[in-house]
Amino acid sequence: MGYYLTCLLILGYTMRGSEFSELKAFATIVEEGSFIRASARLRISPPALSQTIRQLEARLGVRLLNRTTRSVSPTAAGDTLFTRLGPVFRELEGAVADIHASRDQPAGSLRINVPRVAAMRFIAPILGDFQRVYPDISLTVIVDDMLTDIVEGRFDAGIRLGERLEKDMVAVKLSGDLQMAAVAAPAYLAGRSTPRHPGDLHQHRCINFQWPGGGNIYRWEFARGKRALEIAVEGRLTVNDTDLLLNAVLSGAGIAYMIDYQVRPWIENGQLVRFLEAWSPSFPGFYLYHPSVRHVPPALRAFIDFVRGSSGQLVVSS
User: Fold this and answer.
1) Which pLDDT score, from 0 to 100, does residue 252 have?
2) Which tens digits make up the pLDDT trace of 40-77?
Protein backbone atom coordinates (compact mmCIF):
# COMPACT_ATOMS: atom_id res chain seq x y z
CA MET A 1 0.00 0.00 0.00
CA GLY A 2 1.42 3.41 -0.97
CA TYR A 3 2.51 5.90 1.67
CA TYR A 4 -0.03 8.55 0.64
CA LEU A 5 -2.86 6.04 0.47
CA THR A 6 -1.98 4.88 3.98
CA CYS A 7 -2.09 8.52 5.13
CA LEU A 8 -5.42 8.94 3.43
CA LEU A 9 -6.92 5.95 5.22
CA ILE A 10 -5.66 7.26 8.55
CA LEU A 11 -7.10 10.65 7.67
CA GLY A 12 -10.46 9.09 6.90
CA TYR A 13 -10.61 7.34 10.26
CA THR A 14 -9.77 10.50 12.20
CA MET A 15 -12.24 13.02 10.72
CA ARG A 16 -15.90 13.30 9.98
CA GLY A 17 -17.15 12.70 6.45
CA SER A 18 -18.08 16.37 6.08
CA GLU A 19 -14.52 17.45 6.91
CA PHE A 20 -13.13 15.05 4.32
CA SER A 21 -15.58 16.43 1.72
CA GLU A 22 -14.53 20.01 2.53
CA LEU A 23 -10.87 19.22 2.00
CA LYS A 24 -11.63 17.38 -1.24
CA ALA A 25 -13.66 20.37 -2.46
CA PHE A 26 -10.78 22.73 -1.63
CA ALA A 27 -8.19 20.58 -3.42
CA THR A 28 -10.39 20.32 -6.52
CA ILE A 29 -10.88 24.10 -6.71
CA VAL A 30 -7.12 24.66 -6.57
CA GLU A 31 -6.49 22.03 -9.24
CA GLU A 32 -9.13 23.45 -11.59
CA GLY A 33 -8.50 27.12 -10.80
CA SER A 34 -12.23 27.74 -11.00
CA PHE A 35 -15.32 27.22 -8.86
CA ILE A 36 -17.38 26.48 -11.97
CA ARG A 37 -15.06 23.76 -13.28
CA ALA A 38 -14.60 22.31 -9.79
CA SER A 39 -18.35 22.16 -9.20
CA ALA A 40 -18.82 20.35 -12.52
CA ARG A 41 -16.09 17.85 -11.61
CA LEU A 42 -17.53 17.28 -8.13
CA ARG A 43 -21.10 17.28 -9.47
CA ILE A 44 -22.41 19.83 -7.01
CA SER A 45 -23.75 23.33 -7.61
CA PRO A 46 -21.40 26.36 -7.42
CA PRO A 47 -23.37 27.88 -4.50
CA ALA A 48 -23.09 24.61 -2.57
CA LEU A 49 -19.36 24.48 -3.30
CA SER A 50 -18.91 28.08 -2.11
CA GLN A 51 -20.75 27.23 1.11
CA THR A 52 -18.51 24.19 1.63
CA ILE A 53 -15.37 26.34 1.34
CA ARG A 54 -16.79 28.95 3.72
CA GLN A 55 -17.43 26.20 6.25
CA LEU A 56 -13.88 24.89 5.86
CA GLU A 57 -12.33 28.34 6.26
CA ALA A 58 -14.50 29.04 9.29
CA ARG A 59 -13.56 25.73 10.88
CA LEU A 60 -9.82 26.29 10.29
CA GLY A 61 -9.98 30.00 11.12
CA VAL A 62 -7.95 31.04 8.08
CA ARG A 63 -8.67 32.21 4.55
CA LEU A 64 -7.63 29.57 2.02
CA LEU A 65 -8.63 31.10 -1.33
CA ASN A 66 -8.39 34.49 -2.96
CA ARG A 67 -11.49 35.06 -5.08
CA THR A 68 -12.19 37.63 -7.78
CA THR A 69 -14.92 37.76 -10.39
CA ARG A 70 -12.52 36.20 -12.90
CA SER A 71 -10.15 33.95 -10.98
CA VAL A 72 -9.48 31.97 -7.85
CA SER A 73 -6.08 31.15 -6.34
CA PRO A 74 -4.82 29.79 -3.02
CA THR A 75 -3.57 32.10 -0.30
CA ALA A 76 -0.24 31.33 1.31
CA ALA A 77 -2.04 29.18 3.89
CA GLY A 78 -4.10 27.55 1.16
CA ASP A 79 -1.01 26.75 -0.90
CA THR A 80 0.63 25.13 2.12
CA LEU A 81 -2.47 23.03 2.76
CA PHE A 82 -2.78 21.98 -0.86
CA THR A 83 0.90 21.00 -1.05
CA ARG A 84 0.20 18.45 1.72
CA LEU A 85 -3.22 17.34 0.48
CA GLY A 86 -2.59 17.20 -3.27
CA PRO A 87 -0.50 14.00 -3.35
CA VAL A 88 -2.92 12.31 -0.94
CA PHE A 89 -5.96 12.92 -3.12
CA ARG A 90 -4.07 12.04 -6.30
CA GLU A 91 -3.15 8.72 -4.69
CA LEU A 92 -6.80 8.17 -3.89
CA GLU A 93 -7.85 8.94 -7.47
CA GLY A 94 -5.16 6.58 -8.71
CA ALA A 95 -6.43 3.83 -6.43
CA VAL A 96 -9.99 4.33 -7.66
CA ALA A 97 -8.77 4.41 -11.26
CA ASP A 98 -6.96 1.11 -10.69
CA ILE A 99 -10.24 -0.46 -9.61
CA HIS A 100 -11.86 0.80 -12.81
CA ALA A 101 -8.90 -0.49 -14.78
CA SER A 102 -9.47 -3.95 -13.35
CA ARG A 103 -12.83 -3.76 -15.11
CA ASP A 104 -11.05 -2.69 -18.33
CA GLN A 105 -12.55 0.80 -18.08
CA PRO A 106 -10.05 3.54 -17.07
CA ALA A 107 -11.53 6.42 -15.11
CA GLY A 108 -10.47 9.54 -13.26
CA SER A 109 -9.48 13.10 -14.15
CA LEU A 110 -6.71 14.32 -16.45
CA ARG A 111 -5.32 17.83 -16.94
CA ILE A 112 -3.27 18.31 -20.12
CA ASN A 113 -1.21 21.37 -21.10
CA VAL A 114 -0.53 21.90 -24.82
CA PRO A 115 0.57 24.73 -27.12
CA ARG A 116 -2.04 25.83 -29.66
CA VAL A 117 -0.31 24.25 -32.66
CA ALA A 118 -0.16 20.86 -30.91
CA ALA A 119 -3.73 21.17 -29.62
CA MET A 120 -5.06 21.57 -33.15
CA ARG A 121 -2.83 18.85 -34.59
CA PHE A 122 -3.11 16.13 -31.92
CA ILE A 123 -5.93 16.90 -29.50
CA ALA A 124 -8.78 18.49 -31.45
CA PRO A 125 -9.21 15.54 -33.87
CA ILE A 126 -9.55 12.95 -31.08
CA LEU A 127 -11.79 14.65 -28.52
CA GLY A 128 -15.08 13.13 -29.65
CA ASP A 129 -13.71 9.61 -30.10
CA PHE A 130 -11.79 9.73 -26.82
CA GLN A 131 -14.92 10.71 -24.87
CA ARG A 132 -16.91 7.93 -26.52
CA VAL A 133 -14.28 5.28 -25.78
CA TYR A 134 -13.52 6.50 -22.24
CA PRO A 135 -16.70 8.09 -20.87
CA ASP A 136 -15.46 7.83 -17.25
CA ILE A 137 -12.35 9.96 -17.84
CA SER A 138 -12.80 13.66 -17.10
CA LEU A 139 -10.41 15.47 -19.46
CA THR A 140 -9.33 19.11 -19.12
CA VAL A 141 -7.19 20.52 -21.96
CA ILE A 142 -5.49 23.87 -21.35
CA VAL A 143 -4.12 25.53 -24.49
CA ASP A 144 -1.01 27.42 -23.42
CA ASP A 145 1.94 28.71 -25.49
CA MET A 146 3.95 29.93 -22.51
CA LEU A 147 5.99 26.79 -21.68
CA THR A 148 4.29 26.28 -18.34
CA ASP A 149 5.94 23.94 -15.84
CA ILE A 150 3.41 21.10 -15.78
CA VAL A 151 4.42 20.00 -12.28
CA GLU A 152 4.01 23.47 -10.82
CA GLY A 153 0.82 23.93 -12.84
CA ARG A 154 -0.53 20.62 -11.52
CA PHE A 155 -0.96 19.05 -14.95
CA ASP A 156 -0.79 15.31 -15.57
CA ALA A 157 0.93 15.66 -18.94
CA GLY A 158 1.77 18.05 -21.77
CA ILE A 159 2.82 18.16 -25.40
CA ARG A 160 5.90 20.07 -26.49
CA LEU A 161 8.58 20.21 -29.18
CA GLY A 162 11.51 17.96 -28.36
CA GLU A 163 13.98 20.83 -28.05
CA ARG A 164 11.78 22.47 -25.40
CA LEU A 165 11.16 19.45 -23.17
CA GLU A 166 11.64 19.91 -19.46
CA LYS A 167 14.26 17.80 -17.74
CA ASP A 168 13.45 14.64 -15.79
CA MET A 169 10.31 13.93 -17.82
CA VAL A 170 9.10 10.75 -19.47
CA ALA A 171 8.69 11.63 -23.17
CA VAL A 172 6.66 9.75 -25.78
CA LYS A 173 7.35 10.64 -29.41
CA LEU A 174 4.31 11.76 -31.40
CA SER A 175 5.89 12.88 -34.69
CA GLY A 176 8.97 12.69 -36.82
CA ASP A 177 11.39 15.58 -37.18
CA LEU A 178 9.92 18.84 -38.44
CA GLN A 179 11.27 21.58 -40.70
CA MET A 180 10.73 25.31 -40.98
CA ALA A 181 9.41 26.88 -44.18
CA ALA A 182 9.81 30.44 -45.46
CA VAL A 183 6.72 31.28 -47.52
CA ALA A 184 4.92 34.17 -49.17
CA ALA A 185 1.87 34.64 -51.36
CA PRO A 186 2.42 35.04 -55.13
CA ALA A 187 0.78 38.47 -54.90
CA TYR A 188 3.47 39.60 -52.46
CA LEU A 189 6.33 38.23 -54.58
CA ALA A 190 5.01 39.80 -57.80
CA GLY A 191 7.57 42.40 -58.88
CA ARG A 192 9.99 41.40 -56.11
CA SER A 193 13.04 39.14 -56.21
CA THR A 194 12.60 35.82 -54.38
CA PRO A 195 15.12 35.48 -51.49
CA ARG A 196 17.96 33.07 -52.29
CA HIS A 197 19.93 33.61 -49.09
CA PRO A 198 18.65 34.41 -45.58
CA GLY A 199 20.39 37.78 -45.81
CA ASP A 200 18.07 38.71 -48.67
CA LEU A 201 15.19 38.84 -46.19
CA HIS A 202 16.35 42.29 -45.11
CA GLN A 203 15.07 43.54 -48.46
CA HIS A 204 11.54 42.27 -47.72
CA ARG A 205 8.59 42.83 -45.42
CA CYS A 206 8.63 39.93 -42.98
CA ILE A 207 5.92 39.07 -40.47
CA ASN A 208 7.39 38.82 -36.99
CA PHE A 209 6.15 36.33 -34.40
CA GLN A 210 6.18 37.25 -30.72
CA TRP A 211 6.08 34.44 -28.19
CA PRO A 212 2.75 34.63 -26.29
CA GLY A 213 2.65 36.28 -22.90
CA GLY A 214 4.75 39.24 -23.97
CA GLY A 215 7.79 37.13 -24.79
CA ASN A 216 10.65 37.89 -27.16
CA ILE A 217 10.33 38.27 -30.91
CA TYR A 218 11.34 35.02 -32.61
CA ARG A 219 14.66 35.29 -34.45
CA TRP A 220 14.46 33.24 -37.63
CA GLU A 221 16.88 30.32 -37.50
CA PHE A 222 18.61 29.01 -40.62
CA ALA A 223 21.30 26.38 -41.19
CA ARG A 224 23.13 24.91 -44.16
CA GLY A 225 25.86 22.40 -43.56
CA LYS A 226 27.97 23.76 -40.73
CA ARG A 227 26.71 27.31 -41.20
CA ALA A 228 23.99 28.55 -38.86
CA LEU A 229 22.31 31.94 -38.81
CA GLU A 230 19.80 33.73 -36.58
CA ILE A 231 18.15 36.74 -38.18
CA ALA A 232 16.04 39.47 -36.62
CA VAL A 233 13.84 40.12 -39.64
CA GLU A 234 12.31 43.46 -40.50
CA GLY A 235 8.63 44.23 -40.92
CA ARG A 236 5.83 46.35 -39.55
CA LEU A 237 3.53 43.48 -38.63
CA THR A 238 4.00 41.36 -35.48
CA VAL A 239 1.57 38.68 -34.26
CA ASN A 240 1.56 36.14 -31.44
CA ASP A 241 -0.87 33.60 -32.90
CA THR A 242 -0.05 31.07 -35.62
CA ASP A 243 -3.53 31.16 -37.18
CA LEU A 244 -3.27 34.91 -37.52
CA LEU A 245 0.23 34.52 -38.96
CA LEU A 246 -1.07 32.10 -41.58
CA ASN A 247 -3.92 34.41 -42.55
CA ALA A 248 -1.52 37.33 -42.82
CA VAL A 249 0.87 35.57 -45.18
CA LEU A 250 -1.99 34.24 -47.31
CA SER A 251 -3.31 37.79 -47.66
CA GLY A 252 0.02 39.00 -49.05
CA ALA A 253 1.16 40.90 -45.95
CA GLY A 254 4.74 39.65 -46.28
CA ILE A 255 7.00 36.65 -45.72
CA ALA A 256 6.31 34.21 -42.87
CA TYR A 257 8.47 31.50 -41.33
CA MET A 258 6.40 28.60 -40.02
CA ILE A 259 6.54 24.85 -39.40
CA ASP A 260 6.27 23.26 -42.83
CA TYR A 261 3.20 21.12 -42.16
CA GLN A 262 1.28 24.23 -41.11
CA VAL A 263 1.61 25.72 -44.61
CA ARG A 264 2.01 22.60 -46.78
CA PRO A 265 -1.59 22.50 -48.10
CA TRP A 266 -1.31 26.08 -49.35
CA ILE A 267 2.08 25.41 -50.95
CA GLU A 268 0.61 22.42 -52.77
CA ASN A 269 -2.38 24.37 -54.11
CA GLY A 270 -0.25 27.33 -55.19
CA GLN A 271 -1.54 29.89 -52.67
CA LEU A 272 1.93 30.10 -51.10
CA VAL A 273 5.42 29.91 -52.57
CA ARG A 274 8.21 28.30 -50.57
CA PHE A 275 11.87 29.33 -50.79
CA LEU A 276 15.15 29.09 -48.85
CA GLU A 277 14.35 25.39 -48.39
CA ALA A 278 18.04 24.43 -48.45
CA TRP A 279 18.54 26.79 -45.50
CA SER A 280 15.56 25.54 -43.48
CA PRO A 281 16.74 23.35 -40.60
CA SER A 282 15.10 20.24 -39.23
CA PHE A 283 14.42 19.93 -35.52
CA PRO A 284 12.92 17.36 -33.11
CA GLY A 285 9.16 16.96 -33.46
CA PHE A 286 6.40 16.79 -30.88
CA TYR A 287 6.47 14.69 -27.72
CA LEU A 288 3.82 13.93 -25.14
CA TYR A 289 5.53 14.10 -21.76
CA HIS A 290 4.67 13.59 -18.10
CA PRO A 291 6.48 13.53 -14.74
CA SER A 292 8.50 10.44 -14.02
CA VAL A 293 6.45 8.16 -11.76
CA ARG A 294 6.67 4.50 -10.96
CA HIS A 295 3.03 3.91 -11.76
CA VAL A 296 1.33 5.72 -14.65
CA PRO A 297 -2.40 6.11 -13.82
CA PRO A 298 -4.64 4.08 -16.15
CA ALA A 299 -6.43 7.22 -17.36
CA LEU A 300 -3.13 8.80 -18.43
CA ARG A 301 -1.95 5.57 -20.03
CA ALA A 302 -5.21 5.37 -22.00
CA PHE A 303 -4.78 8.99 -23.14
CA ILE A 304 -1.18 8.46 -24.22
CA ASP A 305 -2.06 5.34 -26.21
CA PHE A 306 -5.05 7.07 -27.80
CA VAL A 307 -3.05 10.12 -28.91
CA ARG A 308 -0.20 7.98 -30.26
CA GLY A 309 -2.59 5.75 -32.15
CA SER A 310 -4.30 8.75 -33.75
CA SER A 311 -1.28 10.95 -34.45
CA GLY A 312 -0.23 9.25 -37.68
CA GLN A 313 3.15 10.02 -39.21
CA LEU A 314 3.91 13.74 -39.11
CA VAL A 315 7.29 14.03 -40.80
CA VAL A 316 9.54 16.48 -42.55
CA SER A 317 8.36 17.26 -46.07
CA SER A 318 10.56 15.82 -48.77
Assistant:
1) 97
2) 888 888 899 999 999 999 999 999 999 876 778 899 99
Total number of residues shown for the chain: 318
pTM assigned to the model? 0.65
Contact 208, 235 (CB under 8 A): yes
